[in-house]
Automatic annotation (TrEMBL):
<dbReference type="InterPro" id="IPR029055">
    <property type="entry name" value="Ntn_hydrolases_N"/>
</dbReference>
<dbReference type="GO" id="GO:0004044">
    <property type="term" value="F:amidophosphoribosyltransferase activity"/>
</dbReference>
<comment type="function">
    <text>Catalyzes the formation of phosphoribosylamine from phosphoribosylpyrophosphate (PRPP) and glutamine.</text>
</comment>
<keyword id="KW-0408">Iron</keyword>
<feature type="domain" description="Glutamine amidotransferase type-2">
    <location>
        <begin position="11"/>
        <end position="230"/>
    </location>
</feature>
<feature type="binding site">
    <location>
        <position position="445"/>
    </location>
    <ligand>
        <name>[4Fe-4S] cluster</name>
    </ligand>
</feature>
<keyword id="KW-0808">Transferase</keyword>
<dbReference type="Pfam" id="PF13522">
    <property type="entry name" value="GATase_6"/>
</dbReference>
<keyword id="KW-0411">Iron-sulfur</keyword>
<dbReference type="GO" id="GO:0046872">
    <property type="term" value="F:metal ion binding"/>
</dbReference>
<dbReference type="GO" id="GO:0006189">
    <property type="term" value="P:'de novo' IMP biosynthetic process"/>
</dbReference>
<dbReference type="InterPro" id="IPR005854">
    <property type="entry name" value="PurF"/>
</dbReference>
<keyword id="KW-0328">Glycosyltransferase</keyword>
<keyword id="KW-0658">Purine biosynthesis</keyword>
<keyword id="KW-0315">Glutamine amidotransferase</keyword>
<comment type="pathway">
    <text>Purine metabolism; IMP biosynthesis via de novo pathway; N(1)-(5-phospho-D-ribosyl)glycinamide from 5-phospho-alpha-D-ribose 1-diphosphate: step 1/2.</text>
</comment>
<dbReference type="InterPro" id="IPR000836">
    <property type="entry name" value="PRTase_dom"/>
</dbReference>
């Protein structure tokens, strides 16, 4: 039972070229990116002109041991941690995905969602393609091998031209080349690093930090980077007129120690909290988060409001993804096992709870009720982003409006439904301005807040459209 109501993002990717301990470094890179996907993980490595791989369901340390990594060592490697937004949660859909074609092998790992996957798959099947998985990732390799008559680089460019949606790919060939690809809108993060002369690709800079690599730069929207014995080559495909980086990376997805868009995520979240305190002040005895959600925005809110910050809810860090179902007489066990209040801090107090988002609302409602029963006098909630009113089609797991509690309710209605004394959200202008990015209106995807989608999609297709 996973009691978090937070949205989950598609995946995290990592790749390294030509390092004798490539698989081990990839393992550590995936460890750093574990927050981006806890469903499955895998590593593929180029060894003796072939690709060897190991994949499994669960967390990175549960899937790999020393023997696995020794088998995978050889030079170049790519890795992947997954949460499925397209395709079932089964081992066949774990990545990297590997194919063999004309005495060469290719592996690919993907973060994002192809919004034209259903159309592309039907087109490929009509020309004889047979699919092994329900992932949209597999579509890339089908088009790639069909386009190899154009040469390796030509095949990459031709394949990318057919794709629509949000994607950051890392690809590995049996010869050891490592390729990074970012979609024309730049929805998903992908950066380039360097470790003792060996280039690295990673979803976030926290993975570079863990392996002591330096950040070179972030890939540009529409860029293909090919890393080989010849060095590094950049190919610029047609970028979109404006960037569409997912604003939710700053709000929730990215690790706080990562740097994206040139901004530290920790400091950006604190800035969101400071702006929230200006826009939506409240009188209270303390400011608190529900760990770990909203912690950094709560620090900023406390700093700006001069109201003391307290960790008045203590998180149990040893709660696994699954445990024995509680009995009916213990129906609130699911809340208490993960977070427990510090009663002496809270009883008789007026409090401000800082959240980074309210998606489905069920967990928030239960926790607010528990605080009331504890004797908290007034409960104000402040959210460090605007209300989520529209589904995401670019790789986040709320794909229908019915999943979003704020889709058809006013803030006042939400306040009553959640049992709060007051509720306020950070405004969209406030969110964008507090990122510190120049011209933020032209740099971020905000579709989940304003319904303005940057890439067209087929509304009839569900997120499991490939099945």
């Amino acid at each position: 039972m996973d009691f978090s109501e937070k949205p989950r993002e598609a995946c995290g990717v990592f790749g390294i070229y030509g390092h004798p301990e490539g698989a081990t470094l990839t393992y550590f890179g995936l460890y750093a990116l574990q927050h981006r996907g806890q469903e499955s993980a895998g590593i593929a490595a180029a060894r003796d002109n072939r690709i060897v791989d190991h994949r499994g369901m669960g967390l990175v340390p549960d899937i790999f041991d020393v023997n696995h990594l020794e088998h995978l060592e050889g030079g170049s490697a790519i890795g992947h941690v997954r949460y499925s937004t397209t395709g079932s949660s089964v081992l066949a859909n774990a990545q990297p995905f590997v194919v063999h074609h004309r005495k060469r092998s290719y592996a690919i790992a993907h973060n994002g969602n192809l919004v034209n996957a259903h159309t592309l798959k039907m087109e490929l099947e009509e020309t004889g393609s047979i699919f092994q998985t329900t992932m949209d990732t597999e579509i890339f390799l089908h088009y790639f091998v069909k386009s190899l008559k154009l040469g390796f680089e030509g095949a990459l460019v031709e394949t990318v031209s057919r794709l629509k949606g949000a994607y950051s790919f890392v690809m590995l060939t049996s010869n050891g080349e490592v390729v990074g690809i970012k979609d024309p809108n730049g929805f998903r993060p992908l950066c380039l690093g360097k470790l003792n002369g060996h280039y690295i690709l990673a979803s976030e800079t926290c993975a570079l930090d863990l392996v002591h690599a330096e950040l070179v730069r972030e890939l540009d929207p529409g860029e293909i980077v090919i890393i080989s014995e010849k060095g590094i080559k950049s190919i610029k495909t047609q970028a979109a007129a404006s960037r569409s980086f997912c604003i939710f990376e700053f709000i929730y997805f990215a690790r706080p120690d990562s740097t994206i868009y040139g901004q530290n995520v920790y400091q950006t979240r604190k800035a969101h909290g400071r702006r929230l305190a200006q826009e939506a002040p409240a009188e209270a005895d303390l400011v608190m988060p529900f760990p770990d959600s909203g912690t950094y925005a709560a620090l900023g809110y406390s700093e700006a409001s001069k109201i003391p910050f307290e960790m008045a809810m203590i998180r149990n860090h040893y709660v696994g993804r699954t445990f024995i179902q509680p009995t009916q007489s213990m129906r609130d066990f699911g809340v208490r096992v993960k977070l427990n209040p510090v009663k002496n801090l809270l009883k008789g107090k007026d409090i401000i709870i800082i959240e980074d988002s309210i998606i489905r609302g069920t967990t928030v409602k239960t926790r607010v009720k528990a605080l009331r029963e504890l004797g908290v006098k007034k409960i104000h909630m402040r959210v460090s982003g605007p209300p989520h009113r529209f589904p995401c089609h670019y790789g986040i797991d709320f794909s229908t409006r019915g999943e979003l509690i704020a889709a058809d309710k006013s803030v006042e209605e939400l306040k009553e439904l959640l049992g709060l004394d007051s509720l306020a959200y950070l405004s969209l202008p406030g969110l964008l301005e507090s990122t510190g990015i120049k011209n933020p209106e032209n740099n971020f995807c905000k579709a989940c807040f304003d319904g303005c989608y940057q890439v067209e999609f087929d509304e009839q297709l569900s997120k499991d459209c490939l099945e």
